[in-house]
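Lab meeting prep.
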Amino acid sequence: MEVTFDGGKVITAHLNGHLIRTDQPVRGGGGNTAPAPFDLFLASVGTCAGIYVKSFCDQREIPTDNIKIIQSVAFDPEKRLPASISLDIQLPADFPEKYKAAVINAAELCLVKKTINNPPEFVVTASVATPY
């Protein structure tokens, strides 16, 4: 992945042929033209859980049209970091009762969540790029 600085507070990740743009809100000096990086981080938690729930349902031919995940975050005001992230999988009334616990277990398999629970080591370096 390559990250570029694209004017103002816009930062873009170039990843596998995709452009993932971020910006800061106006109050943070940006133009609010894209999600902030932390918002993308939070979205990755919910969407990762969502793909596991979707796969679980698809394997059992359970429609997902009326399923949604509501994510909420409680912040620690002193650390200014999330203290907890909650995912509420909202199921329709006709969702099979026998699969309710299993769909929660499917969401728990999310790789983003597992990574947060077992954080990798971060190595940050700086180097001088050689001209072409």
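Slide two material, second protein:
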Amino acid sequence: MSKTAMELVQHAKSIITEVTLAQAISMLDDSSIALDVRELLEYQTGHIPDAFHISRGMLEFMIASHPEFQDKNTSIVVYCKTGGRSALATATLQQLGFTNVHSMLGGFDAWAEDDAIPPETQA
């Protein structure tokens, strides 16, 4: 039986850990790595400071060779625009053996709209 994209996202969300924006900020302040899984143009338009970019479509092929992601126990905060792609990416990373990955609720839209985050940090 086939599934819709939203059903796939809902399934992913049932097996991953999602964190709020406040939790993500705290994690990033405490040495977690931000991973942006949006398309390159989205990333170039604006991203979380110091975030690494690997688009969702290339994640499985590029993560293993990326120097920042060699330790599969490293804390990673995954985000996209609103949270769907990051949920799928987080589930994929878990399947690839990453043990400390979290999807950020609300994605970059939530980050960009947060009044507590100074605009100059929204790279």
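Talking points for slide two:
Strands lie at 18-19, 33-36, 52-53, 76-79, 101-104.
The radius of gyration is 14 Å.
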